[in-house]
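Backbone shape codes
____________________
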Amino acid sequence: MRLYEVIWKDKFVDKIERKHDVITDEVEQVLFSNSHIRRAEKGKVKGEDLYVAYVQTKAGRYLMVLFI
């Protein structure tokens, strides 16, 4: 899977920064790098399956990103 764009929703940006101490640049590093991506589960809405990406950031943090 190759990703080219992230559509950010403000409520999720605030949550990942506040609750998880992760900034959007780190998330985009995970999504646009050579990360391991797999489908976690079938979505309840057609075409909106839940995926998970795993990778180590440039700063050395290991992140797991969930996305639709």
Q: What stands out?
A: The chain has a mean pLDDT of 88.
